[in-house]
Structures are given as C-alpha cells and as structure tokens.
Design goal:
Elements: E1 9-10, E2 14-15, E3 26-30, E4 37-40, E5 50-58, E6 65-72, E7 74-82, E8 86-91, E9 94-95, E10 98-100, E11 113-119, E12 123-128, E13 131-137, E14 139-140, E15 149-154, E16 167-175, H1 181-187, E17 199-203, E18 213-214, E19 224-227, E20 235-237, E21 243-251, E22 255-256, E23 262-263, E24 267-274, E25 284-292, E26 296-305, E27 308-309, E28 315-316, E29 324-327, E30 337-346, E31 349-358, E32 361-362, E33 368-369, E34 377-380, E35 390-399, E36 405-408, E37 411-414, E38 420-425, E39 431-432, E40 440-442, E41 447-454, E42 460-462, E43 466-468, H2 475-480, E44 482-485, E45 492-497, E46 502-510, E47 515-523, E48 528-532, E49 539-546, E50 551-558
Parallel strand pairs: 21-25, 26-30, 31-35
Antiparallel strand pairs: 1-2, 3-16, 3-20, 4-15, 4-19, 5-11, 5-16, 6-7, 6-15, 7-8, 8-10, 9-14, 11-12, 12-13, 16-17, 18-19, 22-23, 24-25, 27-28, 29-30, 32-33, 34-35, 36-37, 37-40, 38-39, 38-41, 41-42, 41-43, 44-45, 45-48, 46-47, 46-49, 49-50
Length: about 550
C-alpha cells in the first residue's frame, strides 16, 4: 500500500496533526486498448540520464503496446513488446537502442505492478516491482532533436493513432536524472511532493471522476488530457485509493488514542481503519507513530556570596541541594524540565589591618591618617579567597616624638625625655657631632645646631636648626683686628680692621658652600668694606676675608 503521510479530516470532525490532504478512491485510469490515450504537449527537457516509472495493471499484456511514448526533443519509449508481458525500453541515440526483459520476468496479469526504466549514463536498467531484472551496458548518448515534437503520450504511440494499450495506469513519474535502486524502492509506494530534484512530470491520477485532465503535480504544467475517454467511467480505484495517513504523536506520558486504547511506550505499528472515512468515501487507515518522551532532569550548580535568589523566587542564605523547580514544558522535547538546585553560599571575608606608624600613615584607601583610629574600613570587591568581597578594618596607632629644643645662652636642651639624642651640625650638611648624644648640648663655637630625637616608641624626628652667633669662632680675626658688624644683621654689614692695611678678597658663602657674594677691597685702620645681603634668604652665612698669606672666616646671621 502507498504510504500517504498526510492527515485526514474524518466526517468533518476528526483532525490529526496538520497539513491535511483529502484522499480519493479514484487514483487510476483504465484505457480500452482501442483508441483511448492521454496526451500532453510537454516541454523540452534534456535527458542526459533519465528514469520513467509507473504502476500498471493489464489483463493480457498485449504485444506491441506503448505505455509511455515521449517524443519531445528526445525520443524515449517504455512499452510491452513481447507475448505475456515482456517489457521493453527504447531511447534514441543509445547503442543498443533497446532493453528487453526476459520471459521469466513476466508479471501476473490482473495485478498492479511497479515498472521502472532507468538510464544512468552507462547502463540501461529495467526494474519490475523494485527488482533490477535486466542491466545492459550501452554507448552513445540520448539524442536530442528538434524534429521530435509530438509531446508525451500515455497508452499509445507518439503518433496518437496506433499501438493502444488495454491497461490501467497509476502514479507515473518522469525524471531527467537516474534514480537508484534504493531511491526507487524507498519511494515507489509513497507519495512525492512534486518538488524533488530532477522530477519533470508527476501524475498521481487523483483528479477524480468527471475530470478529463490529469494534473502534473510538479508545477511544470505538463498536464495530461484524456482522449476518446469517458470521464464518468474511465476513472477507477487504483492500488492506492484507500487513504493512508500517519498520526505522529510526541507525548510526555501515556496517551489514549482514537482506538480507545492507552499507550505508554513508543510504537509505530498500531493502525486504525475508518470504514469509508476518507473525503471520497474510501476507507481511511491511520497508523500511530508515537514517541513517549521523558521529563528533563538537570542540576543548577550555583555559588554565591551571602545569599542567592533562585528561579523559584526564593532567597537562600545557606547551602542547599534539595530545592526543586519544575519548568512546565521547558525541556527541548516539550516535556517538563525539573531542575534541582545545588547551591554553595560563601560569606564575605572580614579582617583587621593592625598598623603602627610615626606621625602619619597612608592606608589602602589612599587616605593619610595622622591620628590613632580603629573605625576606618575598606571594601575589596571579590578580594576573599572564596571570591566574595573582603572588608578590612584599620586598627592604627600613630606615635610621635617631640623634636623641639629649649635654648639657654649656649646650652641647647631637647624637650623629649627618655629618648636617644644625636646633635648635628646644620652648617655641615647635618653631620653628627662626635660624642654629643646627651639631652643637652653646649655650643663652643658659633654655628647652627639641631638634634635628632629617637623616642622610646621608635619614632625619630629632627629639630629645627638653632643658630649660636655670639661665640668668637676665629681667634685670628681678633689678632688681626678684623671686625664684622652688625651681627646678626638685616642684610647690610661692614668689615673693618684695627691695624691691617692692604688688599683683601671677601667671599660670602651659604651653609651649603655656595658662593653668593665676592669682592676685592682695600682695608686699613680707617676704612671698611660694606656688604649687602638684603636679597639673600635669612640664615647663617660664612664670610671669608683673605690676603696672600691667610684666610679669616667669620659667621654672620641674617634675620
């Protein structure tokens, strides 16, 4: 039986799936062998290879009949040439031109048979009921000729006047490609769509009683016209008049089918027959193709920090592997999808950063702190080992030391007690003064002094420089009678001598040794050299007075 994979509407009420096609009892035509034939002008096609196939039923298989006679651009014939149903295929341009079945392949009369004639470019092959009964190697090619211009004739010679066939026809297919044995057997009992590649004409003979044409279902327009036939009587029920359909069902559980039975497992062999149930009044046979699908099972593995809101809308704050959610119809097969939650809840990390610093401390938040604190926090996103945030609290102690100095005449005393002390010479790039590690330092020469104080808390600081300018530091100047006044000064001062006479070089240097003033002057008991440091910064400066024999150094303080 032909498998018609369509869907039926039974008695106007039963609908199975979609894409419905009404079947008919009339699916063949009967030719009388006297003058009946079917004709189409047919279009020009190139048949480098070809396949002609049909279902036929004859009471006698009269010799010299023509079944398919194509005389349009090419000349190809499928006929019956021998007594008792010996089939013949014939194509112009091939050598040998014809292929004939053996007597042993004689089909049974009064019974429907499938016959196919194939040329694949190398061989001509004849199939009867899906079996290749003869294969003949050939040379040449199918001839194309514009004089072949009589169209397509079914049931007679292309001249439409002789070799008529007393035969019933059903399901004729003409291809300009070679169909394989597998393709023939897979589809000879099944309806085609008409859009298959290489299919140039396709006649299912379902136009029915009253019609005098047979539709070409390829859409190529090669419609057949009935000649010398009676549309009221020559349409007959072919081998496929009974409507056949398949009810394809996919279910997520047992179903009760149209036969009243309940099916809970896959099946594709159960059938149900509606007597006279097709639209044309023929029986309708429905085959159940049932697939029972199962609900999908899956696990949603999640890791979260502190809490997690799941697809069920609930907020979970602890590990959970028992929560279940069903998504109705959520599986790929249309069944429910059952999801189990596998949740790990991690907690954010908390830590304290304990720090001790002198005077100030710049923390990870970029802020510099100058006082003790234990309330500042900083959030490191994702900084914990488990991937959660890390919150750090600062526990900071700021230590200090008092670097101030009290001055009494030439005594300098650090105000921080119980500390370590190192007095330094500011004028000598803060070089430590050897042996001066007491809290009090007594200056023995004019200069600028400071103390480095290291407290018991480990912090260290340096005091500001203290200037001592009232101690004579150059005995030579006294001997030579060189005097610098006033000292300290606002910037202007003079250098004179009591008993020296002659030319001197005067240079003024800052505490780093940089020369900021120089001049050559003549000094005598009654003359002096005036120096102006008004433009210089306040501080301690060294004044060198030299002649060819000696240098006299003095300190001057500018305020």
């Amino acid at each position: 039986m032909k498998r018609i994979f369509t869907t039926l509407m039974i008695a106007g009420a039963l609908m199975l799936n979609s894409n419905e096609t009404q079947a008919q009892c009339y699916s063949a035509v009967q030719l009388d062998g006297v003058d009946d034939y079917l004709y189409s002008p047919f279009a020009d096609y190139t048949f480098n290879t070809f396949t002609m196939e049909m279902w036929i039923n004859s009471a006698d298989y009269t010799p010299n009949e023509h079944y398919i006679s194509l005389y349009q651009n090419s000349y190809i014939v499928l006929g019956g040439w021998g007594t008792g149903g010996v089939f013949d295929g014939w194509a112009s341009g091939l050598n040998p031109v014809a292929i004939v079945t053996a007597a042993s392949n004689t089909p049974t009369t009064g019974t429907w048979h499938h016959v196919a004639y194939v040329y694949d470019g190398t061989n001509q092959i004849f199939y009867v009921d899906g079996v290749a009964v003869v294969t003949t190697a050939v040379t040449g090619a199918v001839a194309a000729n514009a004089t072949f211009a009589s169209g397509l004739v079914i049931g007679a010679r292309y001249t439409q006047a002789t070799q008529f066939s007393n035969t019933s026809f059903e399901d004729i297919r003409i291809w300009n490609v070679a169909r394989t044995s597998a393709e023939l057997n897979a589809n000879m009992s099944s309806n085609l769509t008409g859009s298959e590649s290489g299919l140039v004409a396709y006649y299912r003979f379902e136009d029915g009683q009253g019609s005098n044409t047979v539709t070409d279902l390829t859409g190529n327009g090669n419609t057949l016209t009935m000649n010398n036939m009676d549309p009221a009587t020559d349409w007959i029920s072919g081998p496929f008049g009974v409507a056949q359909s398949t009810d394809v069902q996919n279910s997520c559980g047992p179903i009760t089918w149209i036969d009243g039975n309940t099916y809970s497992s896959d099946t594709n062999s159960v059938t149900y027959t509606y007597l006279g149930g097709s639209a044309a009044g023929c029986d309708s046979i429905v085959t159940l193709d049932l697939t029972i699908n199962s609900a999908a099972q899956s696990t949603d593995v999640q890791t979260a920090c502190d809490s997690y809101t799941w697809i069920d809308g609930n907020i979970y704050t602890a590990n959970n592997n028992t929560a279940v959610y069903t998504m109705l119809g959520g599986a790929a097969n249309g069944c429910d999808s059952i999801v189990t939650l596998d949740l790990t809840v991690n907690v954010a990390a908390q830590s304290t950063d304990i720090q001790t610093a002198c005077d100030s401390y710049t923390w990870i938040d970029g802020i510099t702190y100058t006082a003790t604190t234990n309330t500042e926090t900083y959030l490191v996103p994702g900084g914990a080992a488990n991937g959660c945030d890390s919150t750090v609290t600062l526990d900071l102690v700021i230590n200090t030391v008092d670097p101030t100095v009290t001055t009494s005449t030439f005594d300098l005393t650090a105000n921080e007690t119980g500390a370590q002390y190192q007095w330094v010479d500011c004028d000598n790039n803060f070089a430590p003064i050897s042996g001066e590690t007491s809290q009090t330092f007594t200056a023995t020469a004019n200069g600028s002094y400071a103390v480095i104080v290291t407290g018991a808390n480990g912090c260290s600081d340096t005091s500001t420089c203290v200037v001592i300018a009232t101690i004579s530091v150059d005995e030579t100047s006294l001997e030579s009678g060189i005097v610098l006044a006033p000292n300290p000064t606002n910037g202007e001062f003079s250098i004179s001598t009591l008993n020296y006479s002659g030319e001197v070089r005067i240079e003024v240097l800052d505490v780093t040794g940089k020369l900021i003033f120089s001049s050559t002057e003549n000094l005598g008991p009654n003359s002096s050299a005036n120096i102006d440091l008004s433009g210089a910064a306040n501080g301690v400066y060294i004044v060198n007075v030299s002649d060819m024999n000696e240098v006299h150094s003095m300190r001057v303080v500018k305020k």
